[in-house]
Design brief:
alpha/beta
């Protein structure tokens, strides 16, 4: 069972459905379509409020001219060891200035969620039993060392989000 989680907890009655093959958004649901399908729709329509699925090999910058029409960008993680989605989220937030919902979908585990939050993800489609249990208990792992800049403001007052905390030679 997949549940949607964000910083406020689990989301009840999430309307978004990833359309694939025979799976279609029904009445009262909102469709998340693939990047190419979205670009085709955007070319022939003035609609807004789209949900777009971005795969690891997709060029997220192709969304740039249409960001004002997108309500949700779902970034696929087909395997836990494929980190290209982190780059997609960072590009969406920092370079393209996207302000809407960015959702991780696929193989979402508990350990990378704090790092995903730092790169701009706002929600997560979680099916991993361990991740579901830890999120239900509000037990996210901490990040003791920070080696890279972040999209999210540093929680340390007056600190730098990109510098290591503790240790020697910062």
């Amino acid at each position: 069972m997949t549940k949607i989680w964000n910083a406020g907890g689990f989301v009840d009655n999430d309307p978004w459905v990833i359309e694939m093959g025979e799976i279609k958004a029904g009445e009262g649901a909102r469709a998340i379509v693939g990047l190419d399908a979205f670009l085709e729709l955007a070319e022939h329509s003035n609609e807004s409020g789209f949900g777009v699925l971005v795969g690891p090999a997709d060029d997220v910058t192709r969304l740039g001219p249409h960001l004002d029409r997108i309500a949700l960008v779902a970034i696929a993680f087909p395997a836990f060891n494929d980190g290209r989605g982190f780059s997609h989220a960072t590009l969406l937030r920092q370079r393209l200035g996207y302000q809407g919902e960015v959702r991780a979908v696929g193989d979402v585990l508990i350990d990378p969620i704090p790092l995903m939050l730092r790169t701009g993800f706002t929600s997560f489609a979680v099916s991993n039993p361990t991740a579901l249990a830890r999120l239900a208990e509000n037990r996210l792992p901490g990040i003791a060392q920070r080696y890279q800049p972040t999209v999210v403001t540093s929680a340390v007052a007056g600190g730098f989000s990109w510098r290591r905390i503790g240790g020697t030679g910062a």
